[in-house]
Structure formats: C-alpha cells, structure tokens
Specification:
By secondary structure, this protein is mainly beta. Helix content is about 0%, strand content about 50%. The strands form five sheets. Strands 3, 4, 5, 6 and 7 form a five-stranded antiparallel beta sheet that branches. The protein has a four-stranded antiparallel beta sheet with strand order 8-9-10-11, with no helix packed on it. A four-stranded antiparallel beta sheet has the order 12-13-14-15, with no helix packed on it.
C-alpha cells in the first residue's frame, strides 16, 4: 500500500492513535523540534530482509490526535536502520527552522537533514580505519549535553565516539569481549554500554587509561 493512502485512526477506548505502515517496523524517533508548522515529526524505520529499506517521516498533531504521512520526506535506507534519533537540542539554530537533523545507524552512521519538502543526506561516518566497509552498528546515542558528540556500538566489540561537526573520531574503544548491543550517555563525557558477554561497562572519556584502539 502506498504511503500516501495511509491514514491514522483514533481508538477512543484507550485514547490512542494508530498509523498502519505498509512495512514491518523496527526503529522510531520523535522530534523535539517545537516548530508549529509541522507539529511534531515521527521517523519510523522498516525491517525488510532486503538491502533497500525505508525511513518514513510522519506528522503528528497532538491537538487533533492525528498522524499523517509525508510522502515527500520518505527515503530509502540501506539495510534496516537499527536506531533513529532526531537532534536532541531544542535551542540550536537548526531547531529554529523547519528543518530537523536525523541520525540513523545500520551499516554506517548517517546524518540526514529533514527539510519542509525534502530530505538531504549530509554525512556518512565509517567506524573502520582500514576499510571502506564498516562492521554493522547495533545502536547509537546522541549526547544531549554536547550534541556534537554521537557514540555508536558495533558487533565488532567496539564503541566509537564521533565529533559529527568535524567529522572525526574522538576515540574508539574495545568495549567488550563480544558484540556490543547498546550504548547510552550519562554525562557529557561518560557513557555506558551493554554486550552479549553479559556485562554493563561505564567509560569516562576524561580518564586517559581507557583502552583506545
């Protein structure tokens, strides 16, 4: 079913609103951009067992409890996105416009600018220092205190901290003995990760004793 024909409906019994996607869904994100021109944006990522997947941008109106697709803002994504996040800051110059900055993970970390009627791919970040290919990313987290910083987790046992403004790796750690499945910031330079090895580990980037690759 084409996205343009999708409609939301209100379930009065539990005060919920539903959007039915034509694809199985795996990841989603809510925009914190308060711009009333497009209400609040919701990004949803498909889970299709093929190379080409989709990210759809929906418009949520909290006053009418309605969700509408924005077909002009839907775009192809290589492989299923493992996580989606909008820029977390609410007072940056970007947040004063009709644009949103969206990050996605999968084969790489990618940044997209979601404009009023189009989406532009801005940056692609490769965790590998020796190959054009990157080990699949399981998740990432955007630092709310310092939004220039994004941390990613990977099946290759590493966590990578990116300065997305400069497009460079700040540090890359062998974080666990097995695949790293998730990462979360606690403070501006402190993050935690969890792994298939059964451990939770906390890293302080101010401590120069950590194992940097």
């Amino acid at each position: 079913m084409d996205n343009s024909t999708q409609e939301s409906h209100l379930r009065s019994d539990n005060n919920s609103v539903t959007y039915d996607s034509p694809h199985p869904l795996y990841a989603m994100a809510f925009s914190s951009n308060p711009n009333p021109q497009h209400h609040q944006r919701i990004a949803v990522g498909s889970f299709i067992e093929e190379y080409t997947n989709r990210v759809d941008i929906l418009s949520f109106n909290p006053d009418t409890l309605s969700i509408k697709p924005q077909p002009s803002l839907s775009f192809d994504h290589p492989y299923p996105p493992t996580k989606l996040m909008f820029h977390p800051a609410t007072h940056s110059s970007l947040q004063k416009t009709s644009s949103d900055l969206l990050a996605t993970s999968g084969d790489y970390l990618r940044l997209w600018e979601v404009r009023e009627n189009s989406v532009e791919a801005l940056s692609l970040f490769n965790n590998s220092k020796t190959s054009e290919f990157c080990a699949p990313l399981t998740s990432f987290d955007w630092n709310e205190i310092e939004p220039k910083r994004i941390g990613t987790s990977s099946i290759d046992t590493t966590c990578t901290i990116w300065d997305i403004e400069r497009g460079v790796v700040e540090t890359q750690l062998i974080a666990h003995d097995k695949e790293v499945y998730d990462i979360a910031w606690g403070e501006s330079r402190v993050f935690a990760s969890v792994s298939a090895d059964g451990s939770v580990r906390i890293f302080d980037l101010r401590d120069k004793e950590h194992s940097t690759i």
